[in-house]
Amino acid sequence: GSWCSAPPCRGRALPRTPPGSAGAARHPVRWASSTSTESDHSDGRITLSESCVKRLLEITEDSEFLRLQVEGGGCSGFQYKFSLDTVIGPDDRQGVFEQGGACVVVDVDSLAFVKGSMVDFSQELIRSSFQVVSNPQAEKGCSCGTSFSIKI
User: Fold this and answer.
1) What is the C-alpha separation between 147 and 81, in angstroms, rounded?
2) What are phi and psi of 85, to 5 degrees?
3) pLDDT tens digits, the chain, 152 residues: what are they?
4) Which helix (H) or strand (E) holds 113?
């Protein structure tokens, strides 16, 4: 893979360690999986919509990136969870996706549930949020936009 060239994902991770503990090892991001704007769902890439890239560039600083996780729960069995993070760990090796200067990181367990998806930023009258759209692993979703069930 190529180096992730975007500042949010360059591997200048700020370790989140308890005070007094040794600094966490920094993980250079050598495994950026997506550097083009093409939507290629067949190889498990996560793509970012134009609105997602724009919003991430507005809200992230330095080495921050958007972390996407899949957890059990929600209305349909699984739910998407988004957060800003600065530490790229060993479990993220296959799930570093950069596009247009913005970066999304997905851990290996979550990646199995979202590979081939697109991350979008939706702004509506009552809320604005990051969302996973066009998830080929999802059988159906909930109207909340954050919960889904998987194809078996």
Assistant:
1) 9
2) -145, 165
3) 334 444 446 444 444 433 443 433 333 333 444 444 344 444 789 999 999 999 999 999 989 999 999 988 766 678 889 999 999 999 998 999 999 999 999 999 999 889 999 999 998 888 888 999 888 877 755 554 555 456 55
4) helix 108-114
- Whether residue 94 contacts residue 31, with contact meaning beta carbons closer than 8 Å, is answered with yes
- The number of domains in the chain is 1
Predicted TM-score of the model (pTM): 0.69
For residue 27, tell me if it sits in a domain. Answer: no
In this structure, what CATH number is given to the domain that contains residue 99? 2.60.300.12
Q: Tell me, yes or no, whether 126 lies in a domain.
A: yes
Q: Are strands 47-48 and 118-123 parallel, antiparallel or unpaired?
A: parallel
